[in-house]
Design a protein that fits this description.
GO terms for molecular function: ATP binding; ATP hydrolysis activity; transmembrane transporter activity. With 282 residues, the chain is an alpha/beta fold. The radius of gyration is 21 Å and the shape is globular. Bound molecules: adenosine-5'-triphosphate. The site of adenosine-5'-triphosphate has 11 residues, from helix 1.
């Protein structure tokens, strides 16, 4: 005879410990899956970013990099799995309180900045989590920080220019300055060098190198398609392929010919000279 179903009896899951991220983790994914239709665009990803680390995320088109960053930015929830961001757990925190603690630069966000917004306003509005100036008043301190960032990112002469008139490289720098406006504890940069010419890319790599070497800078995650864009000073890499983590660990052990070939499904030869990487077909 089978025991009668006891609706009051807690399920085994009720006895499981609630997820608590590691103490030194600024971002922790545990078995994270994102399902869209019949496809898992992220499939059981485990990944931990600790304070002070600077991560590169690489993988082929459609591997799930931007989806991963949207989750890390608390702008998307996984279908299953757990996510710790800073000292909070996604699903048990007011994301509107969490988001100002995370700096995000992405193409998606760039599309939300109005063409007529000035550079200065595109940066300062991040303090209210907005992408456009409305009727809000800013403290002197906010204005000083915005001006400081605008100047630090080489945009001083453009402070009053409209966002819509900027070159791709200038826009990218505005978005990074904006991402830093709230003095975030976690910085997420989704393809910041996409669309830049060679000089623009090199200037950006130099600025990101300086940021990586700044001990006061937040833990950083940089999504890129090209190993040439990896700034010296970055410490770790995560390789994604078809939604799964193929490799994750210290940069030099992860950005290897073998690992990159596996992630991209094609034979690649990776070389490193003076802290910079190149990759060509093997
Ligand atoms: N809402 C959705 N419904 C169905 N599929 C989706 C949805 N959003 C994303 N995808 C798919 O999920 C996969 C991962 O997308 P994602 O943008 O995260 O990849 P990516 O690694 O950033 O790609 P890329 O390098 O091309 O920017 C892609 O195949 C994409 O088509």
């Amino acid at each position: 005879m089978t025991a009668p179903h006891d609706a009051a009896r807690p399920s085994p899951a009720a006895f499981e410990e609630p997820f608590t991220p590691d103490e030194d983790a600024v971002l922790q994914l545990h078995g994270v899956t994102v399902r869209r239709g019949a496809k898992d665009i992220l499939a059981g990803v485990d990944w931990t970013v600790r304070a002070g680390e600077r991560w590169i995320v690489m993988g082929p088109n459609g591997a799930g990099k931007s989806t991963l960053l949207q989750i890390a930015a608390s702008r998307m929830f996984p279908t299953s799995g757990e996510v710790g961001i800073l000292d909070e757990v996604l699903g048990a925190v007011d994301v509107f309180e969490l988001r100002p603690r995370i700096g995000l630069s992405s193409a998606l966000l760039a599309n939300q900045v109005r063409e007529e917004e000035t550079v200065q306003d595109a940066v300062i509005t991040a303090s209210y989590g907005m992408t456009g100036r409305w009727r809000e008043e800013y403290e002197l301190e906010d204005r000083a920080r915005a001006l400081g960032l605008v100047s630090e990112w080489g945009l001083a002469r453009l402070a009053h220019r409209r966002f819509g008139t900027l070159s791709e490289g200038e826009r990218k720098r505005v978005l990074i300055a904006r991402a830093l406006m709230t003095d975030p504890e976690l910085l997420l940069l989704d393809e910041p060098a996409a669309g830049l010419d060679l000089a623009g890319r090199e200037a950006l790599v130099a600025q990101l190198t300086a940021l990586a070497e700044d001990e006061a800078a937040p833990a950083t995650v940089l999504v890129t398609h090209h190993v040439e864009e990896v700034p010296p000073g970055f410490t770790h890499a995560l390789l994604l392929s078809e939604g799964a983590a193929v490799a994750a660990g210290p940069l030099e052990e992860t950005l290897t010919s073998e690992r990159l070939s596996e992630a991209f499904g094609t034979a690649l030869k990776v070389t490193r000279a003076d802290g910079r990487y190149t990759a060509v077909a093997a």
